[in-house]
Amino acid sequence: MLTKLTIMNEKLNERKKLLIDVLSIQTTSGNEFDMIAYIKDFCTEFVPKAKVVIKDNNIYVTKGKSKTYPCIVAHTDTVHSIHKYYKVFDDDGCIFAFNSETGLQVGVGGDDKVGIWIALEMLLKQDDIKCAFFHSEEIGCVGSSSADMEWFKDVGYCFQADRRGSTDFVNSISGKLYSKAFKKSVKPILAHYGYKESSGSITDVGQLAENGIGVCVANMSCGYYSPHSDEEVVIFEHASNCLDMIETLVDELGNNVYEYQYENKWANYGYGSNKWGDFTGASRDYWYGNYGTAQNEVVNEVVYDEQTGEESCYYCNCTELMESEYTDDTNDYRFCPDCCSDILLGEKEVADPNQMQLELEAEDVEYEDISDSYDDSLEHRTIVNEYLKNK
Ligand SMILES: [Zn+2]
Ligand SMILES: [Zn+2]
To answer: What is the whole-number distance in angstroms between the Cα of residue 117 and the centre of ligand 1?
Structure first.
């Protein structure tokens, strides 16, 4: 008789096998045909009843018949080059890749092949689900910018697993991504899986929000680390935990619609296409209070060269780092234009422990203060204009 543990182990082994299979397919922006073919073949073989449409190099998969569907999206490109000899290895759940011709480590492409794997697992498991796979996210959300929004008409909410690490649940990309009601429904689940809300940089769900999808969307960490670098690895346990969480979220939210009208905070100022990172020098503290500064494990993402005094991005080695609006009283951040993300330089020394306590409390404050404090009033506009002028 099979024990519960053996069944669990078998499930995990099956999951890992598929993940390694997906990670073994190489793509780079504009050359994503192998992945598109893989997803199509996968559906034909394992999800035969699903309807698969390939349109403008994006893939749209619909499984089941429902008035409304949960939706998972991912991107089919990676930033890595395609190697002639490429092999994925698994060392106790740490999954990495080597170019066996040069004998050097190369990025495993977890960004966003982990997202693709999660979508495929969801297609296997759920009765009613939609999944979209977009091409060329890494060169500016090209696929999702021209997404077929008709196809999203019966989508109730949309998730993407396309962020490094294991604990971020992204609730804003240049504007809030979901409603208070949605937040209330997902909050206990996030806590259970060790996630907390954070803001993030542009990816396909942000683009869909921008396109006017009209429902709640979110992006989240899915267990890849050091994306956009040759050192990129995937920690299976973290990827699997993300999949578990998405399954639970979809079970909880069901085939319901969570309406939400996204607003790009900068759209009114003619900066609609600009993302957060372009606003160098803004004090995050000023606009947002202390939200988003919680750091359980502090990892310094900015590498500081003592000799030359040069700062570089831990993920992509970029040395053109800019100021970040995330910098506040407790943490110093930089913005990496290559990764398009805000990276941690380090904790500031805090002299007064009472002050520290105050700030910790401030973090617990509802995140709604992000835009609640921004009221579109003349006063606010003046402040923004003043700021832009002085830049
Ligand atoms: Zn990505
Ligand atoms: Zn990326």
So the answer is: 13
Ligand nearest to the CA of 112: 1
Q: What is the mean pLDDT of each run of 10 residues along the chain (391 residues)?
A: 84 96 97 96 97 96 98 98 96 96 96 98 98 97 97 98 97 95 97 96 96 98 97 98 98 97 75 42 34 41 80 78 80 78 74 48 39 48 53 44
Return the ligand number nearest the Cα of 219: 1
CA of 135 to the centre of ligand 2 (A): 12
89-94: Cβ within 8 A, 24+ apart: 90/16, 90/20, 90/236, 93/16, 93/235, 93/236, 93/237, 94/233, 94/234, 94/235, 94/236
The Å distance, Cα 80 to ligand 2 centre, comes to 10
- Ligand showing the shortest atom-to-Cα distance for residue 107: 2
In the block, residue with structure tokens 């998405």: 246
CB atoms within 10 A of CB 51: 13
* Residue 348 alpha carbon to ligand 1 centre in Å: 30
Domains of the chain (ranges, CATH numbers): 23-269 (3.40.630.10)
Measuring CA to CA, how many Å separate 229 from each of 79, 81, 224, 241, 318?
8, 11, 11, 23, 10
- Distance of CA 339 from the midpoint of ligand 2 (Å): 7
132, 126, 133, 152: which is closest to 46 by C-alpha? Answer: 126
Q: What is the pTM of this model?
A: 0.71
Closest ligand to the CA of 74: 1
